[in-house]
């Protein structure tokens, strides 16, 4: 068979299979860094052999088999690795040297994926490290892809990942799903990482693109995996509902030139009805029997749903949205949520009560460097006919934002006569 360029096929298989492979190997060797090393060895073998031999019928099984052999080879030649495995209470060489290993690899790997999520999002790691490691181990993204998505040097991302793996090894973080209260807390860490990844894609904090759909798509994919692994967790459903409802607006959220299109001005016929339907279904699964126990992601999904079901901007039930934001403020105490509540209050009850909320936030200093505080304040002042003050606020918002598209929007709003 002649040489064929199968790089796209290898990359596609890796994106699909890498998380499962790394999860299974981590269970075997007890170290996420070592597991990725063995998985990468299998990837290199695929790049070498598949051009000549063709892509196997079961590429995931092929990668698993190669990785298994790499582990066994390391066991046989590396005494240090043998000691590591003995410490974990595992003996990979029994009888013919592979039977025990094969039995483990053929078990259901759903729990392994969940364990890998808990490891990658462990609180011993910084938030930036959790995000990078999750995208690397569970998303199959390269360091270059992660770096480009977050507009940081590739070396920075690589360093974060290396340090994260070293920290997990040094702290002897167990490859397990915790139980009891610790499980709830750690699940919250996993949800937070997916939420942060999605948000960075939904509204990029810097750069010349306002929307990075590739990050949102990855967060949603991992959210669906998490829901499948934890079907009885309401907040997993709540986060997935929130992401799918927000993602339904993508086609209408930016203009042809990439500029932001405000929600009220979006062409709702371009919203993705399939994603809205899936999001609403996930939202129903997130609702507890006691409404007072509703989680923060479910509440946010409820807000997104209120927008999604409104045929026109004028049909939006802003009173319901304001009430949901009020409940969310009680749950989180977040000044950003309070700012969003002010917007909802302004739409439901007028700009004056909303301006009082915003002024209280401004006076507290909690959002001193947050560009959306002067942006919202400017919009409210304009609605009250206080044009000069509104212009000053929008100019301040333009100076504070690090996203070029948002800066252009704020500059436009600062111009005399602009009514957006």
From TrEMBL:
Residues 118-168 form the RNA polymerase sigma factor 70 region 4 type domain. It comes from the Bacteria. InterPro entries: DUF6596, RNA_pol_sigma70_r2, RNA_pol_sigma70_r4_t2, RNA_pol_sigma_r2, RNA_pol_sigma_r3/r4-like, WH-like_DNA-bd_sf. Residues 20-80 form the RNA polymerase sigma-70 region domain. The lineage of its organism: Bacteria, Bacillati, Actinomycetota, Actinomycetes, Streptosporangiales. Residues 387-420 are annotated as: Disordered. Gene3D superfamilies: 1.10.1740.10, Winged helix-like DNA-binding domain superfamily/Winged helix DNA-binding domain (1.10.10.10). Belongs to the sigma-70 factor family. ECF subfamily. Residues 186-286 form the DUF6596 domain. This is RNA polymerase sigma factor. Keywords: Sigma factor, Transcription, Transcription regulation. It comes from Nocardiopsis alba. Pfam families: DUF6596, Sigma70_r2, Sigma70_r4_2.
């Amino acid at each position: 068979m002649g040489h064929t360029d199968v790089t796209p096929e290898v990359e596609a298989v890796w994106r699909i299979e890498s998380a499962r492979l790394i999860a299974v190997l981590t269970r075997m060797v007890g170290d996420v860094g070592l597991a990725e090393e063995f998985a990468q060895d299998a990837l290199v073998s695929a790049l070498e052999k598949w051009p000549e031999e063709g892509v196997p019928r079961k590429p995931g099984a092929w990668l698993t088999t190669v990785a298994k052999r790499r582990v066994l080879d390391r066991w046989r030649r590396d005494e240090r690795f043998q000691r590591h495995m003995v410490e974990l209470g595992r003996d990979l060489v029994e009888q013919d040297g592979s039977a025990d290993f094969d039995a483990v690899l053929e078990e259901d790997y759903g729990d392994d994926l969940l364990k890998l999520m808990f490891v990658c999002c462990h609180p011993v790691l910084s938030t930036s490290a959790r995000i990078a490691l999750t995208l690397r181990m569970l998303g199959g993204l390269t360091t270059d892809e992660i770096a480009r998505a977050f507009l940081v040097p590739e070396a920075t991302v690589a360093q974060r990942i290396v340090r994260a793996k070293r920290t997990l090894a040094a702290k002897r973080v167990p490859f397990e799903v915790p139980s009891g209260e610790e499980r709830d807390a750690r699940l919250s860490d996993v949800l937070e990482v997916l939420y942060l990844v999605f948000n960075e894609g939904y509204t990029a904090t810097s750069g010349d693109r306002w929307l990075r759909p590739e990050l949102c798509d990855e967060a949603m994919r991992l959210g669906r995996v998490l829901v499948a692994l934890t079907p009885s967790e309401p907040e997993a459903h709540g986060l997935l509902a929130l992401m799918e409802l927000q993602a339904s607006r993508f086609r209408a959220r930016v203009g042809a030139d990439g500029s932001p299109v405000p929600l009220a001005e979006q062409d709702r016929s371009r919203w993705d009805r399939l994603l809205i339907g899936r999001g609403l279904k996930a939202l129903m699964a997130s609702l507890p029997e006691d409404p007072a126990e509703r989680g923060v992601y479910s509440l946010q999904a409820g807000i997104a749903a209120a927008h999604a079901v409104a045929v026109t901007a004028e049909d939006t039930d802003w009173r319901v949205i304001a009430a949901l934001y009020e409940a969310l403020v009680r749950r989180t105490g977040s000044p950003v949520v309070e700012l969003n509540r002010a917007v909802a209050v302004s739409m439901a009850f007028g700009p004056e009560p909303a301006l009082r909320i915003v002024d209280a936030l401004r006076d507290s200093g909690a959002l001193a460097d947050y560009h959306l505080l002067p942006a919202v304040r400017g919009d409210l002042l304009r609605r009250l006919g206080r044009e000069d003050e509104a212009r000053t606020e929008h100019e301040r918002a333009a100076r504070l934002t690090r996203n070029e598209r948002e800066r252009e929007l704020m500059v436009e709003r600062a111009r005399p006569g602009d009514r957006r």
